[in-house]
Amino acid sequence: LEQKGVRTEVLTVSSGPEYEQAVSRVKEKMGPIGGVIHAAGAVDLDHPAFIRKTREQMMPVLEPKTDGLDLLYQALHK
Protein backbone atom coordinates (compact mmCIF):
# COMPACT_ATOMS: atom_id res chain seq x y z
CA LEU A 1 0.00 0.00 0.00
CA GLU A 2 2.74 2.44 0.93
CA GLN A 3 4.42 1.89 -2.47
CA LYS A 4 1.17 3.18 -3.99
CA GLY A 5 1.32 6.35 -1.89
CA VAL A 6 -1.00 5.21 0.87
CA ARG A 7 0.00 6.42 4.31
CA THR A 8 -0.48 3.82 7.00
CA GLU A 9 -0.51 3.66 10.77
CA VAL A 10 -0.45 0.39 12.72
CA LEU A 11 -2.28 0.62 16.04
CA THR A 12 -2.89 -1.68 18.97
CA VAL A 13 -5.91 -0.57 20.96
CA SER A 14 -8.43 -2.35 23.18
CA SER A 15 -10.71 0.19 24.86
CA GLY A 16 -13.05 2.95 23.76
CA PRO A 17 -10.80 5.78 24.97
CA GLU A 18 -7.79 4.19 23.26
CA TYR A 19 -9.70 4.05 19.96
CA GLU A 20 -10.79 7.68 20.32
CA GLN A 21 -7.23 8.82 21.11
CA ALA A 22 -5.80 6.81 18.22
CA VAL A 23 -8.33 8.19 15.72
CA SER A 24 -7.64 11.71 16.96
CA ARG A 25 -3.85 11.26 16.65
CA VAL A 26 -4.12 9.82 13.15
CA LYS A 27 -6.39 12.66 11.99
CA GLU A 28 -3.99 15.25 13.44
CA LYS A 29 -0.98 13.56 11.84
CA MET A 30 -2.45 12.57 8.45
CA GLY A 31 -5.71 14.42 7.95
CA PRO A 32 -9.02 12.72 7.10
CA ILE A 33 -9.09 8.94 7.36
CA GLY A 34 -9.88 7.43 3.97
CA GLY A 35 -9.98 3.78 4.98
CA VAL A 36 -9.35 1.30 7.75
CA ILE A 37 -8.09 -2.28 7.76
CA HIS A 38 -9.44 -3.80 10.95
CA ALA A 39 -7.48 -6.99 11.63
CA ALA A 40 -8.22 -7.61 15.30
CA GLY A 41 -8.50 -11.03 16.79
CA ALA A 42 -6.99 -13.52 19.16
CA VAL A 43 -4.79 -16.38 18.04
CA ASP A 44 -5.73 -19.90 19.08
CA LEU A 45 -2.68 -22.03 18.33
CA ASP A 46 -4.39 -25.20 19.58
CA HIS A 47 -7.17 -24.86 16.97
CA PRO A 48 -5.87 -22.52 14.23
CA ALA A 49 -8.33 -23.33 11.43
CA PHE A 50 -11.75 -21.66 11.65
CA ILE A 51 -13.42 -24.57 9.90
CA ARG A 52 -12.38 -26.92 12.72
CA LYS A 53 -13.45 -24.71 15.63
CA THR A 54 -16.51 -25.25 17.76
CA ARG A 55 -18.72 -22.31 18.73
CA GLU A 56 -17.02 -22.21 22.13
CA GLN A 57 -13.59 -22.04 20.47
CA MET A 58 -14.71 -19.32 18.04
CA MET A 59 -16.07 -16.86 20.58
CA PRO A 60 -12.70 -15.79 22.10
CA VAL A 61 -11.38 -15.25 18.56
CA LEU A 62 -14.40 -13.29 17.30
CA GLU A 63 -15.14 -11.16 20.36
CA PRO A 64 -12.09 -8.86 19.95
CA LYS A 65 -13.03 -8.42 16.29
CA THR A 66 -16.68 -7.54 16.86
CA ASP A 67 -16.14 -5.51 20.03
CA GLY A 68 -13.23 -3.66 18.45
CA LEU A 69 -15.18 -2.94 15.29
CA ASP A 70 -17.98 -1.38 17.31
CA LEU A 71 -15.49 0.78 19.25
CA LEU A 72 -13.74 1.77 16.02
CA TYR A 73 -17.04 2.75 14.40
CA GLN A 74 -17.95 4.90 17.41
CA ALA A 75 -14.52 6.59 17.45
CA LEU A 76 -14.64 7.35 13.72
CA HIS A 77 -18.10 8.92 13.97
CA LYS A 78 -17.41 11.33 16.85
Automatic annotation (TrEMBL):
Superkingdom of origin: Bacteria
Domain Ketoreductase (KR): 1-77
SUPFAM superfamilies: NAD(P)-binding Rossmann-fold domains
Pfam families the record matches: KR
Protein name as it appears in the record: KR domain-containing protein
Species name: Ligilactobacillus salivarius
